[in-house]
Design a protein that fits this description.
Number of helices: 3
Number of domains: 2
CATH architecture of the largest domain: 2-Layer Sandwich
Strand order of the largest sheet: 1-2-6-5-4-3
Radius of gyration: 22 Å
Strand content: 25-35%
Helix content: 25-40%
């Protein structure tokens, strides 16, 4: 049985030109996988059940939009649990002084928008994650998250 497992590896090594190249290929694949995982973990997660997820860079921010079938309270609870293990701390809302990096819109109360900062951001000049939920008539919530750059 061990001989059967070894044959494909031996063939792959000979095709690549030796064991060193096979080892190099494996290390490259591990590196790519680690980079993709790091990229995924540095952005805010999307809650389970989210629909129509889309992301784009908009000026100095990365914007992610989606529809969420739960309540605003459930959405906030999700982010309050999901973001701290990724290095984010709850700062307050857009109405909290020095929390936001974005302009405050006239038609949206600042209290409706949650703001998270990196846990090590002591001078309030670092990046933020800002969660903008808007309740729709069909019972779903349209959510936009912004990842802003440092000031």
């Amino acid at each position: 049985m061990l001989r059967q497992v070894g044959r494909p590896l031996t063939f792959l090594a000979s095709w690549l030109g030796g064991w060193s190249r096979l080892l190099l290929l494996i290390l490259v694949l591990i590196g790519v996988g680690a980079g993709l995982l790091w990229e995924q973990l540095r952005h805010p997660p999307v809650p389970p059940g989210a629909l129509q997820v889309a992301s784009a860079s908009v000026g100095d921010a990365r914007q992610t939009t989606f529809r969420y079938p739960g309540s605003v309270a459930e959405l906030r609870a999700f982010y309050q649990q999901a973001l701290p293990p990724r290095g984010w701390r709850y700062c307050g809302t857009q109405a909290t002084p020095r929390c936001t990096n974005m302009i405050q819109l006239v038609d949206r109360p600042g209290e409706a928008i949650d703001v998270y900062r990196r846990a090590d951001d002591q001078n309030y000049r670092g990046t933020t994650v800002e969660i903008w939920p808007i309740e729709s008539a069909n019972g779903q919530i349209f959510v936009t998250t912004y990842e802003t750059r440092s000031k």
